[in-house]
Write a structure and sequence with these properties.
The chain is an alpha+beta fold. The chain folds into two domains: about 10-175, Creatine Amidinohydrolase, Chain A, domain 1; about 180-430, Alpha-Beta Complex (Creatine Amidinohydrolase). The protein has 13 helices and 18 strands.
């Protein structure tokens, strides 16, 4: 790992929150993600399960976390199972966690090797009445392959048919959305690295530059600041490409007169930042570009003020839609007839602003967190309105990451990242 050590107190607190919501005589199991092959003997870079990371900090493949607060033996109330390291593994792949290192990372005293899992787990299941399975119930989930977690669930149901089954997802949904101070600090670090990348790129962008050259500048700055790189596949699109919401080819030339949309974010310690900025390729906004840009900025600023404790996520998006409608009328992209005759299920503003405004942010870019209950303090949301005008070859989106406060406006983790027309022009023209 490139990131600096994280206090295991964070993971101890997270486990305590999960355990507090478990039923009596129940056991919960969390498996690491798979390591995926690319063909021959190559593999993709390993990405740990965010739930397992959240509860243990164990950033290593083939890890298993077991929580059993009612275990008769106190040392079996929290157990972390890991691949046993060896001199051979150390020489070929680098050393894995020792038991002492695993305890230091996680705060868990009881560490077993994976070879002991079946025996220990069987013994614990003779005491347990129910098992919490960690199924993926994210509102945007798109599972197409069987995971390590899925395989464990199948085997466990076959081996222990008399037990009851519970799901971890609802508990994780409730607790992961509200961030601990340590998590907010990590997110701030990720945003600070993103700021460095953006400031590096601003004077670099010129007509004739390729989108992938800009991507490379971000990657260089992210890596040299202890990030693994992008928190998600970056979107760097100039001209018409900025109107493609999930444009990821990043292979076209940035031309004079284009607006360049950059939806990028650095990860740090597996936490995501998520920024969007849109800049003029030649360093100067036209009057039309400035008008559309400032309309998006006003919507972002007003939407941000609504992110307070008690806000309903669905109603919030309706209010943002009203703000955007007014701006589109002013820009003459809509007229009163468009609004009067709009379909309630697809309001008129959706022609130019077709996506949502905010999502939870954390270990996942679209993080777990409650969306059907009122917002709470210390939830972290993106704010990302946009206006996309294909007929004008122009798409503009602006996005910041903010923390809901107990009182007042949210705290902007990207407050130091340039965003006004004047700031951008000054930095691009030096």
């Amino acid at each position: 790992m490139k990131y600096l050590p994280i206090s295991n107190q964070l993971f101890t607190k997270n486990r305590a929150k999960f355990i507090a919501q478990m039923k009596p005589k129940s056991i919960a199991v969390f498996n690491s993600n798979d390591t995926f092959t690319t063909g021959a003997d190559s593999t993709l870079p390993f990405k740990q399960s965010s739930d397992l990371l959240y509860l243990s900090g164990a950033d290593q493949e083939e890890s298993i976390l077991v929580l059993f607060p009612d275990a008769i033996n106190p040392k079996h109330r929290e157990i972390l199972f890991l691949t046993e390291t060896s001199k051979l593994i150390e020489i070929w792949y680098g050393a894995k966690y020792s038991k002492e290192e695993a305890t230091q990372v996680s705060g868990i005293e009881t560490i077993y090797w994976l070879s002991e899992f079946d025996k220990v787990f069987y013994d614990l299941m003779t005491e347990a009445e129910s098992v919490y399975f960690n199924t993926n119930e994210h509102y945007r989930q798109s599972v197409v392959i069987e995971s390590r977690e899925d395989r464990f669930i199948k085997k466990c149901k076959a081996d222990f048919p008399a037990h009851k089954w519970e799901k971890s997802a609802q508990i994780m949904l409730n607790i992961r959305g509200v961030k601990e101070p340590e998590e907010i600090e990590i997110l701030q670090t990720a945003c600070n690295i993103t700021n460095k990348g953006f400031r590096r790129v601003l004077p670099f962008v010129k007509p004739g530059i390729m989108e992938f050259e800009i991507e490379a500048e971000y990657m260089h700055e992210f890596l040299r600041n202890r990030s693994k790189g992008f928190a998600y596949t970056p979107i760097i699109g100039a001209g018409y490409s900025a109107c493609v919401l999930h444009y990821i080819e990043n292979n076209k030339e940035c031309k004079d007169g284009d607006m360049l949309l950059m939806d990028v974010g650095a990860e740090y310690a597996n936490y995501s930042s998520d920024m969007t900025r849109t800049i003029p390729v030649n360093g100067r906004f036209t009057e039309r570009q400035k008008a559309v840009y400032n309309a998006v900025l006003r919507v972002k600023d007003e939407a941000t003020k609504m992110l307070v404790p008690g806000t309903d996520w669905a109603e919030y998006h309706k209010e943002v839609g009203k703000l955007m409608t007014n701006e589109l009328l002013t820009l003459k992209l809509l007229d009163k007839a468009d609004v009067q005759n709009e379909d309630a299920n697809w309001p008129a503003y959706k022609k130019y602003f077709m996506h949502g405004t905010s999502h939870h942010l954390g270990l996942d870019t679209h993080d777990y967190g409650a969306l059907k209950t009122p917002m709470k303090a210390n939830m972290v949301f993106t704010v990302e309105p946009g206006i996309y005008i294909p007929e004008e070859n122009m798409g503009i989106r602006l996005e910041d990451d903010v923390v809901i406060q107990e009182k007042g406006n949210p705290f902007n983790l990207m407050r130091d990242i340039p965003i006004t027309v004047e700031e951008i022009e000054d930095l691009m023209n030096g």
